[in-house]
Design brief:
Elements: H1 2-9, E1 15-17, H2 29-41, E2 45-47, E3 50-56, E4 59-64, E5 67-72, H3 95-98, E6 102-103, E7 106-107, H4 134-149, E8 162-164, E9 170-174, H5 177-182, E10 187-193, H6 198-202, E11 209-215, E12 220-226, H7 230-241, H8 247-251, H9 262-269
Parallel strand pairs: 1-2
Antiparallel strand pairs: 3-4, 4-5, 6-7, 8-9, 9-12, 10-11, 11-12
């Protein structure tokens, strides 16, 4: 999605062929749909629930609703980007020679210490398949070093903010509404809209939405945002979640006016 957004901004004609019902399935479904609609307005073409069958000189052939279709190429076509997921690169590490356990998803580790099946060997980052993000690797590394040195820390690797740097940005941390429903959790969802924010209007970035998810006790357990500087606002909520902050406590935190971060105050009031 980032490359679709980038090449579209460069002026390229972009078509996205997606196997699933919606783009970015790991993100909040409502925001993912809004992002797709925004990119469509910018000229990106989407083919959802479509399975790519082949790539030929004539174009990308895919099947949708039992019918074969094609995104035709032309002399100006430069590239076809295959974005079908990532997997840990463990083939050249010689893990079998030393007995470190691993599988298709990566090297098996204790998520609390980053130790492998051989306790003196640690594995951090994409190779363990836990969370494939650069900042996740950094803090897994800190956790491993702290464990080696016998230092206790308060790193909560289960609270991992992430962002998709499309135009507009999409960012999230914690549980989505769909996850709460799937786990039968009691929750409340609180929303704030960019169009009601003075800074967003001044920036001419009025399209966007921010969601806060709270549990039955009012503790913030998720934040999802689509719009300008979404990642910056989600980062603030990630910090609050690390301190078990509630909606009522967030409501009492003064935010600078005019800033986009006032959206957090507005959502807490919702």
């Amino acid at each position: 999605m980032e490359f679709a957004s980038i090449f579209n901004a460069f002026g390229s004609q972009v078509a996205v062929v997606e196997f699933l019902k919606e783009c970015l399935p790991a993100s909040d479904g409502d925001l993912a749909k809004r992002l797709r609609k925004s990119l469509e307005k910018q000229g990106v073409q989407f083919f959802m629930q479509s399975a790519v069958k082949s790539i030929t000189p004539e174009g990308v052939v895919f099947e949708r609703k039992g019918k074969e279709e094609i995104v035709e190429t032309n002399p100006a076509t430069d590239i076809v980007l295959m974005a079908t997921g990532r997997k840990p690169n463990t083939e050249e590490l010689g893990l079998d020679n030393i007995g470190v356990e691993y599988g298709r998803s990566g090297i098996s580790v204790n998520p609390d210490t980053m130790q492998t099946s051989i306790e003196s060997i640690y594995a951090i980052g994409d190779v363990n398949g836990q969370i494939m993000l650069a900042h996740a690797a950094t803090f897994q590394g800190r956790r491993a070093v702290n464990h080696i040195l016998g230092i206790d820390d308060n790193i909560q690797l289960n609270i991992m903010p992430a962002a998709v740097f499309t135009i507009p940005e999409l960012a999230d941390v914690g549980l989505t509404e769909d996850q709460c429903k799937a786990e039968n959790l009691s929750y409340t969802c609180h929303k704030a809209y960019y169009r009601a924010n003075g800074k967003a209007l001044a920036m001419e970035q009025s399209e966007g939405l921010l969601k806060l998810i709270a549990d039955a006790e009012g503790r913030i357990i998720g934040c999802h945002a689509l719009g300008a500087h979404a990642a910056d606002m989600v980062q603030e909520v990630a910090a609050l979640m690390n301190r078990d902050t509630t909606l009522s406590q967030l409501r009492d935190i003064v935010h600078i006016h005019p800033t986009l971060s006032e959206l957090l105050s507005d959502a807490a009031e919702d």
